[in-house]
Amino acid sequence: MPSRFKSRQVALQSLYIWDVRKQPIEEALRDYYGSLASEEGEAVEPADPFAEQLAVGAAREAPELDAVIARHSAHWRIERMPVVDRNILRLAIYEMKALPTPSAVVIDQALELARRFAGDDSISFLNGVLDAVNKELRGG
Question: Alpha-carbon distance 103 to 136, whole Å?
Fold first, then answer.
């Protein structure tokens, strides 16, 4: 079983494919497993249930997640955000809302994904949005 971080990485890359290609998330996951993982030389389990839960959940709830993001990202329309940034946000917010993972862990893992896949400028933006969303979800 892959680490939770690796699962989040698989989910993010699958969401990226889904977002760019505008294809069903299940196809994006198959494409990830079929091509990206092998191109990167990574050993990927044929099915990663946690990655699939995150990717499918975030894709299916994207309109609701995007509305949450929009409330907390002043001066940034979702469609103008870098693809990686908006999908890190979708993934993290979905996990905070739908799963029992502590918010601090979700935010830390999201920022680690940003360090690997997004620019340095994205980290503070993502942290600010996720912190604000966390406060909203926790009633703060």
Answer: 12
- DSSP assignment of 57-73 equals HHHHTHHHHHHHHHHHS
Q: What is the mean pLDDT of the chain?
A: 92
* Residue 73: φ, ψ to 5°: -125, 75
Please name the fold of domain 4-137: N-utilizing Substance Protein B Homolog; Chain A (1.10.940)
Q: Are 88 and 109 in contact, with CB atoms under 8 Å apart?
A: no
Domain ranges (residues) in the chain: 4-137
How many helices and strands, by DSSP H and E, does the chain display?
Answer: 8, 0
Six-digit token string for 35: 């091509």
pLDDT exceeds cutoff 60 at 103: yes
- H or E element that contains 130: helix 120-137
Single-letter amino acid code for the residue at 91: L
pTM of the model: 0.91
Contact between 94 and 137 under an 8 Å Cβ cutoff? The reply is no
d(CA 46, CA 1): 10
Q: What pLDDT is stored for residue 2 in this prediction?
A: 78
